[in-house]
Write a structure and sequence with these properties.
With 509 residues, the protein is an alpha/beta fold. The chain contains 15 helices and 17 strands. The chain has helices spanning 13-30, 107-115, 138-141, 150-165, 197-213, 218-232, 243-253, 280-289, 308-317, 335-345, 401-418, 439-455, 462-475, 484-487, 498-505; strands at residues 2-5, 33-35, 46-50, 63-67, 84-88, 91-95, 182-190, 258-261, 293-298, 325-328, 349-350, 372-373, 378-379, 383-384, 387-390, 421-426, 457-459. The strands form 4 sheets. Strands 7, 8, 9, 10, 11, 14, 15, 16 and 17 form a 9-stranded parallel β-sheet that branches. The chain has a 4-stranded parallel β-sheet with strand order 2-1-3-4, with helices on one face. Strands 5-6 form a two-stranded antiparallel sheet. Strand 5 (84-88) and strand 6 form a beta hairpin. Helix 1 crosses helix 2, helix 1 packs across helix 13 (462-475) and helix 11 packs parallel to helix 12. The longest helix has 18 residues, at 13-30. The termini are far apart.
Length: 509
């Protein structure tokens, strides 16, 4: 369907850019073709217009959808307006801008507010990791249940308006060719890699102390202490070393996953291993040979320098590994650093936008989208795959494993109801085997996997999703037509030398 957007003539350039971005993301998800040639507006199936826009109803023969002019544009360091409840036409959602009278809300403005994470730029308070303090974020400040994908609800609201004026329009977004269900991307951040017996014993002992004092209880702590004693007395089984057993079981169950590896350990919060340690690259190749994707787990300090993430990508290239995507270690990022770093590194996607201590839709999105770069007032040239569930954010409730499973299943259901997916789940390999987290959490992952066919979920790697879905975003004008120039290794003289990057980032020789 050809859809045109008419922005008010008196709109500032940044307002035009932001509404155009939200419009194109909407078109990518719903399979519409954005149309920008005003001289041939009569060719459009529908035109989205704003009340108060300086346009003539007589221009073109397109059917019009009118929106309330709510979003006005603001500096991203200014907090978003307080939310208002909206219940109409079967939608129960949250709005940033209340519509006047009976006008439809500014659905494009709502989409932009959510997926740009604009309010997050205004949060100056940081947690002990250096991330925006969750208690200061928009959802927490206003008591919003972020287990609802509000950006997707805004898209549903806009599509409802289109369905009212175009009889052949469908309320459910059509899937890209090759995606046979609701796309879910299982991912595994490799934060632990077995180096030696002493390393394993120390890690298990530390986990035992944490579990007893502030974690999941003394029973788990005692189990972990028992593991440490058995390893100390010569047991070969390392309960934290679950990479190969995990991949073998995934292959047996008929799906592939994305494994993100760290490259260096220049900070105390990084893992102990690096690419130079024995077995790391070999494990990557072993996984790739079994259909798994190998991605980059950006180190804790990878965004401290503009070329830090680029260095880590190139280090993987030098070992014959070409990552297409990444996720930041500890989710340690701010968007103003993450977006340019991923672009500079030449990566095709990122999977960092989510929470480590809570489940839900951080950007209100249950779909892949390119983040918005406020410094350039345009979409980034890579896709973001929202992280909606991390293993350590789950806690075994009084209701036990069944309640735990249902919490994760409800998030998948909310995403499935509103679209065709592109979300990620994160279970660290060490989450299996009870050496770190309660065994119920590992079992929950396998239960979700077992139900995927019945639910209509398709579990694929990030690279597979990118291959199947990328054309949607290209057609919407959000991504470049070809990735060749980004996948190729750039000439060395056009970028800082590896030595200079190493010195800047404080990387050990």
């Amino acid at each position: 369907m050809l859809v045109q957007l008419e922005v008010p003539d008196d709109a500032q350039p940044e307002l035009r850019a932001r509404l155009d971005y939200a419009f194109r993301v909407f078109c990518a998800i719903y399979g519409h073709t954005p149309f920008v040639d005003k001289e041939q507006a009569q060719r459009c199936d529908v035109t989205i217009r704003y009340r108060g826009a300086s346009c003539q109803d007589s221009i073109g023969a397109a059917t019009a959808v009118w929106l309330c002019r709510g979003y006005r544009g603001r500096d991203p360091h200014e907090s978003a307006p307080a939310p208002v409840r909206y219940m109409r036409d079967g939608l129960d959602t949250i709005l940033h801008y209340e519509p006047e009278n009976s006008d439809p809300p500014d659905w494009l403005g709502e989409i932009f507010e959510w997926i740009s994470c604009a309010d997050e730029y205004s949060v100056s308070a940081r947690d002990r990791i250096g991330r925006p303090l969750h208690e200061a974020t928009y959802g927490c400040r206003h008591g919003i249940d972020m287990r609802t994908p509000y950006a997707a609800l805004a898209m549903r609201g806009l599509q409802q308006e289109i369905c009212r004026v175009v009889s052949r329009a469908e309320i459910v977004p059509p899937k890209p060719e090759g995606i046979n269900g609701h796309a879910v991307i299982p991912t595994h951040d490799v934060d632990y890699f077995p180096l030696n017996r002493a390393h394993t014993i120390g890690r298990l002992a530390r986990n035992a102390v944490i579990s007893c004092l502030i974690g999941d209880g003394p029973m788990l702590g005692l189990r972990q202490a028992g593991h440490a004693v058995r390893v100390a007395f010569g047991a070969k089984n390392d309960p934290l070393d679950q990479i190969m057993p995990l991949a073998i079981e995934e292959q047996h169950q008929g799906f592939s996953a994305s494994y993100y590896f760290l490259v260096r350990n220049g900070h105390r919060r990084d893992a102990r291993y690096s690419l130079e340690d024995t077995g790391v690259v070999e494990t990557m190749r072993w996984l790739a040979a079994r259909g798994m994707e190998i991605g980059l787990h950006g180190s804790f300090t990878s965004l401290d320098d503009p070329h830090g993430l680029q260095y880590e990508v190139r280090a993987m290239h030098q070992h014959g590994i070409a990552p297409q995507g990444s996720r930041q270690h500890w989710l340690h990022y701010t968007l103003d650093r993450l977006i340019p770093a991923v672009e500079t590194a030449g990566l095709q996607y990122d999977a960092s936008i989510g929470w480590s201590t809570r489940v839900g839709f951080r950007a209100g999105a249950c779909f892949a989208y390119p983040p918005y770069d406020f410094s350039k007032e345009q979409a980034a040239n890579f896709l973001e795959f929202p992280l909606v569930v991390m293993d350590q954010a789950l806690r075994v409730p009084d209701g036990g494993e069944e309640q735990l499973f249902q919490e994760a299943a409800n998030l998948l259901s909310a995403s499935r109801e509103l679209g065709w997916g592109g979300i990620t789940l994160l279970w660290h390999p060490a989450a299996f085997g009870s050496g770190w987290l309660p065994p119920e959490i590992g079992k929950t992952f396998w239960r979700l996997a077992a139900e995927r066919t019945q639910w209509g979920d398709q579990w694929i790697t990030g690279a597979q999703f990118l291959e199947l879905a990328r054309e949607r975003y290209v057609q919407a004008g959000l991504l470049p037509v070809t990735t060749q120039e980004r996948l190729a290794e750039p000439p060395l003289q056009q970028h800082p030398s590896l030595t200079a990057i190493e010195q800047t980032c404080g990387i050990r020789a």
